[in-house]
Amino acid sequence: MTKVSGSPPKRPRTREPRSDSARANPSVVPWEHARVFAQLFDGSGDGAGSGASLTASKASAHIAMIQALTEQLVPRILGASQWPLVAVLYVPRLGRINTRVRREQGEWSVELAAEEESTAQWLGGVRQRFQDGLTQSLGAPVSVSLANTGLA
């Protein structure tokens, strides 16, 4: 009589196929990685050096996150039927932002309360740009304020 195991059979892991160049010389950096690295530290011809490129990429990331906030909030404001509007916005790498929107004398009043300290600091730095984006999207004056959440 043959013994049969009660556990599933163990199979060897399948390995990821490696490129031929990586097997031939492990100290060679793939072309795509070198190109990305060069673009990251490229001075863009203005003589500013690597710091300018890093600052520019950081600024574009801020702009993208501001646009994400605006794209989440504007449809909710325009479609709301009860006031004040209370919404929770989520932006990757920033986390959740509690939002309260009121309509006051021809102006939108938006209060933001971040759940994380780093997000609250970031909002303080981009508040004016976010306010300008909302004003442009809504076609009416907007006042953006940051709530004191009592974060440590």
Describe this entry's structure for a reader.
It comes from Pseudomonas tolaasii NCPPB 2192. InterPro entries: T3SS_HrpP-like_C. This is Flagellar hook-length control protein FliK. There is one protein chain. The protein is α+β, with helices and mostly antiparallel strands and 152 residues long. It has a domain at 71-151: Transcription Regulator spoIIAA. 44% of the residues lie in helices and 20% in strands. It has 4 helices and 4 strands; from the N terminus they run H-H-H-E-E-E-H-E. The chain has helices at residues 20-24, 31-40, 50-79, 117-138, and strands at residues 85-91, 95-104, 107-114, 142-146. A 4-stranded mixed beta sheet has the order 1-2-3-4, covered by helices on one side. A hairpin with a 3-residue loop joins strand 1 and strand 2 (95-104). It is elongated, with a radius of gyration of 25 Å. Mean pLDDT is 78; it is low at 45-50.
